[in-house]
């Protein structure tokens, strides 16, 4: 068996891992994500893959986030005709996320053409909503803890990774050796999702390292959320929260519902300005066995905000006066409706922009986190006078100690562990931690590197 790292090396985006065997026909791609962040990374989305799409036999997804699934519509358009295997919740969420991604790219291309702010004439979307809808026909949900064969020579099985509904750890076995992919590993004490299951036995392991160089704060994130809401409310300001539509938005709504229930914040209006996040609420309800929440808690989460559906409603929010809370995508302020809110509310000192997740280098979120005096939106340098605050304890990714604890659940050490899906400092810090504390053989692979699993 050979593995080639087609993404998520030196970055937290673009996850793609190709498995093939010189002794058998057919190859499998584990995850199929978009690159995000720095322009040189995003340009990779426009480059052809090193392997023709038609030569890939099947895809197995760990979960639905766009950095793991967002390249699928393009791959299908390029000629991929195989099945896309994943958990049922991942299929349901991809049915929301992928068409939205295609529609967003169409909107951004149209906006660039209308305002003449693109170097390309005309600006084109990477793929369309129609492309995304078409690729959904190739999805095939598989049950948890059940063997399936994406290609005849390879047996696969999914177990729970946490992180988001449907989040999976994927184990592959060719009869002689096995490899496990962590996907994005959730946290043992996530307020909404159940903890990841123990690491299955394997000869090789590919593990994420998003927070491989740090520990999450031990403070109560909902107490921090209450403080930010109350502080902004007292100024008569608006709290703008860029949030991933699936995962972070729902955790925030759960926290707000609890804070209102216990009267730790005023009963101020809360708006969820993300049709995608609103649709995802129904997936949470449908897959509640994957959550820690009771039926009543799940209902409270789903009813904690006013849902904003149309662009006109979104524009109306920009004309409203605070106090209020606006939750909108995207989580790193790379696109979506939240950038219009940042453009409107960032120049006013009464307001707050609250960052509640990882901010990849090169994104607007990373610029805000670094204290930028301005952010560039639609060709304009927007002054940032609003308070910029962070809550890192809301992360849905395991931190360095939580990753280590999960690795210690392995029945025996893998022969080699590959560290991916992390910025270089995080990946190298996790490498050192594993070598020092677990004494495992560890590699941080390079982009496009191929390794034979002997």
From TrEMBL:
Keyword check for Disulfide bond: no
Keywords: Hydrolase
Gene3D superfamilies the record matches: 3.40.50.10890, Ribonuclease Z/Hydroxyacylglutathione hydrolase-like
Domain Metallo-beta-lactamase: 13-244
All residue ranges annotated as the Beta-Casp domain in the record: 249-368
Any GO molecular function: RNA endonuclease activity
Top-rank taxon: Bacteria
Protein name: MBL fold metallo-hydrolase
Species whose genome carries this gene: Ramlibacter ginsenosidimutans
